Amino acid sequence: MTVTLITGANKGIGFETARQLTRLGHTVYLGARDTERGEKAAAEAGARFVQLDVTDDASVAAALARVDALEGRLDVLVHNAGISGDWVVDGPTAARVFDTNAVGIVRVTEAALPLLRKSDQPRVVTVSSSMGSFWAVTNPDRPESGLTAALYAASKSAATMLTLQYSKSEPGIKFNALEPGFTSTDMITGAGMTGGRPVEESARTVVKLATIGPDGPTGTLQDENGLLPW
Q1: Three-class DSSP category at 229
Q2: Strands (E) located in the chain
Q3: Longest CA pairwise span in the chain (Å)
Q4: Distance CA 223, CA 98 (A)
Q5: Could you give the domains of the chain?
Q6: Which residues are catalytic?
Q7: Each residue of 110-147: pLDDT tens digit?
Q8: Number of neighbours of residue 144 by Cβ within 10 angstroms
Q9: How far is CA 222 from CA 125, 157, 160, 183, 229, in A?
Q10: Pfam families under this entry (predicted)?
């Protein structure tokens, strides 16, 4: 049985990833800050709830301790937790956005590494964004070039770079980041944008990278079509 932990998974792409991986036979720990929402989402997804706030060291430590006590290892870690900061640009908002979208990756990864090292095929997937790709945001043929999201984009650049650096420092673990696609989530609607595809479609890329075999890639940024320059 594959043991998987997903952060920020009580809704959106994280929730749908939990549901799809559960259907594939994974034992999924659905992490969420809010206990009531997390427990409800876990029940709907067929997963197990674990209280997890990526901005809180004690919460992260307790969540990984629970996985350790119940499973003794972790096979897949999905960094899905992320915020936009409501598209405000100021110092306090920058601190919150980076604490969640980048520093949170470090907190959870460092706490999870001892358990990942016990897995036969450990994989870490970071839900990043092509908004953090210099190639995409400077390419007039890409929609990212016409969007402005300073803090979100910069934090996702950091998220992708952390993924690459961990792939180098932990060669026994597959680390990959992804652009999930323009998806109908609360973050998109909160920005006043409409459209976006269903979360079911975007979660498939997460699932793909969460289920790669020993010959799969590491240290990459991908979307549903394969490698993305960044």
Answers
A1: coil
A2: 3-6, 27-32, 48-51, 76-79, 123-127, 174-178, 220-223, 226-227
A3: 50
A4: 23
A5: 3-227 (3.40.50.720)
A6: 152
A7: 999 999 999 999 999 999 999 999 999 999 998 888 88
A8: 18
A9: 11, 13, 10, 16, 8
A10: adh_short
